[in-house]
Amino acid sequence: MSLRHPVITRFAPTPSGALHVGHVLAAWQARRMADAHGGLCVLRIEDIDTERTRDPRWLASIYEDLEWLGIRFDGEVMVQSRRMGVYAEALGKLRSLGLLYPCFCSRAEIRAEWESMARAPHTGEHMRYSGHCRDLPEERVSELLEKGVPHAWRINMRRVEDLVGCPLWEDLRLGIRRCVPSTCEDAVLARKDTPTSYHLAVVVDDYAQRVSLVTRGADLLEFTPLQRALQAVLGLPTPVYAHHLLLRDARGKRLAKRDCVRSVRFLREQGMNPQQLLAALQCAVERGGVWEG
Ligand code: GLU
Ligand code: ZN
Most exposed of 83, 179, 195, 275 (fewest Cβ within 10 Å)? Predict the structure, then answer.
């Protein structure tokens, strides 16, 4: 294990719904890891998706629930929607390195293509992009751009590999891993009115907040290689990672974030106090992630 000091962890919720026991585990894990190493734990609000995070009540309720739980954070809160200029700059760097290409595929087209390949091996539920627009002839690209056809900007992960090779990263539980960029998805890094995406903002902001230990749920593990590759092309240092297990119900089904009976608010209204909630989480962790309730 090779933690770098100072240990700075973070909790990075998206205010698109109520705080849920899964979020509490992530926040608590980040706080505890920081405390165990005499470090800091910072908060970041991931609200670049203006559609999903439009209702300001979610953000207010996240702050309220964290306060009620007694999980505190160090320093200033970072709010992604206020940092579009910083992301645009990072995107510009990737563009000048020749790593971006426009993708003109609609969601429906990507879905249809993905479903037609449904027998091919793929991980998780994530709908992976095939790279359809990666090698469109230049004239065709200019023509579509001139016509104003809607498009997103994707990163060419094969070119990323040519540029930075296969960088290493470390997870405290899983050990040293090698990222093979060409096996990662050509993710969307920007859309028409948004000069960023989750992946780009996470990488830029973990650096800006001097995060040295990323603690987060194992559902994001599949994206860590891609984010590691982005750090490499942007010349940013890589944090150490600690992906924690996900909560499941007694039947083994992963707890859904939409499930309101596992929201902090609901449990609070049921009469649970913060100590009981954190104790229940501790039990769940000891049972390998099984949340009973
Ligand atoms: N905002 C993401 C979420 O709420 C977390 C991103 C991360 O930890 O990298 O799932
Ligand atoms: Zn495309």
Answer: 275
